[in-house]
Amino acid sequence: MTHPIRIDFVSDVSCPWCAIGLLALEQAIERIGDEAKVELHFQPFELNPDMPAEGEDLDAHMMRKYGITLAQVADNREQIRQRGEALGFTFKGRPGGRIYNTFDAHRLLHWAGLEGKQRALKLALLRSYFSEGGNPADHQTLVDLAVAAGLDGDRARQILETDAYAAEVREHERFYTSQGIRAVPSVVFNERHLIQGGQPVEMFEQALRQLAADAPKPD
User: Fold this and answer.
1) pTM of this prediction exceeds 0.85
2) Domains: count for the chain
3) Tens digit of each residue's pLDDT (9 = 90 or more) over 87-135
4) In a domain, 167, yes or no
5) Four-CA torsion 137, 160, 15, 205, nearest 10 degrees
6) Contact 184/18 with Cβ under 8 angstroms?
């Protein structure tokens, strides 16, 4: 059997295009079925590492950070909503929403990876924030999501109340930044090939099929 295709999905849980990219990637993986084995790993990236715990008004943040108007913010929101709907994901973005610090969410995701529950927690975090208006900086919200993902709630709370896995998350963030990653989602295949952005299912499917075809065959 050929080696599995390693996929490092570098993203933030407050990034809508990361949700779109992940859903498209997962649908592409479903399409190729048994043609290739895939190992999916989630890597941390903070869009706003200096964001205070209380967060910031999302519309004001987008206008300030990207130099766009409120009308452009609304247009972007509708484009994201439509892309999500086509992939079966609900974005309930609306005026008055907030954006939050995500570092603690990444610490829990690191732990979830050690426990084999990373994908479940990642999807729970994305749905909580984008579909339900949850706060990914709120410790009780994070504990509840960890439990829903099949993780131990007491251990999750213990992690959040300490600096557990902070060094590991910072190390991974520095690594991907040092590799030139400045925007997310950044999807790295076999630690060599990069696709960025919330691309269509077909683009990810094509990449996976090509990698599967190019993989060395067993003797």
Assistant:
1) yes
2) 1
3) 999 999 777 799 999 999 999 999 999 999 999 999 999 999 999 999 9
4) yes
5) -150
6) yes
Distance (Å, whole) CA 156 – CA 177: 27
Angle, helices 58-66 vs 70-86, to 10°: value is 110
**Side chain identity, residue 35:** E
Query: The domain containing residue 183 runs over which residues?
Result: 5-214
**What percent of the chain is predicted at pLDDT more than 70?**
97
Flag whether 219 is in a domain.
Answer: no
Quick one: pLDDT band at residue 217, thresholds 50, 70, 90? Answer: low
Considering the domain boundaries, does residue 200 fall inside one? yes
Q: In the 8-state DSSP scheme, what is residue 218?
A: P
User: Looking at this protein, which amino acid is placed at residue 67?
Assistant: G
Q: What is the CATH number of the domain that holds 195?
A: 3.40.30.10
